[in-house]
């Protein structure tokens, strides 16, 4: 039997400080098979196995000061056990564009029972940047 957990941020912006990996928090749980949701930021699988994780993020449009030609970058990654023995995987980076930027990533990896997994984001803009929308989904295939 497969299990699914879906966390949803909605459209309430989350301000992300520059040059700091930040754990994304969510506003609601849309699906919570086998009670995998933890603290509106983490998903913990119920058993060891192979997992497929998905994240969908939307960064706000940014204002760049006149004459500032420095490229901006935003990154995201899956993080195992973010409050303990941290281990990141499935990282993705993009150059920021003048308008909103969408980022959708999936990643398959082996995981351990009850090991919490979250999504962290990072950027190098000169001020806090709004993450306008986020979704995080974990799926397992039980053997």
Overview of this protein structure:
The chain has 143 residues and is mostly beta strands. The chain is elongated, with a radius of gyration of 16 Å. The protein has no helices and twelve strands. Strands 1, 2, 4, 7, 10 and 12 form a six-stranded antiparallel β-sheet that branches. The protein has a four-stranded antiparallel β-sheet with strand order 3-11-8-9, with no helix packed on it. Strands 5-6 form a two-stranded antiparallel ribbon.
Keywords:
single chain, 143 residues, mainly beta, six-stranded antiparallel β-sheet, four-stranded antiparallel β-sheet, 12 strands, 0% helix
Overall pLDDT score: 90
Number of strands: 12
Major pleated sheet: 6 strands, antiparallel
Strand residue content: over 45%
Which structural class do the helices and strands define?
mainly beta
Shape: elongated
Poorly predicted sequence stretches spanning 5 or more consecutive residues: none
Give the topology.
Layout: E1 2-8, E2 14-16, E3 22-23, E4 28-32, E5 37-38, E6 42-43, E7 49-59, E8 73-80, E9 87-95, E10 101-111, E11 117-123, E12 129-141
Antiparallel strand pairs: 1-4, 1-12, 2-12, 3-11, 5-6, 7-10, 7-12, 8-9, 8-11
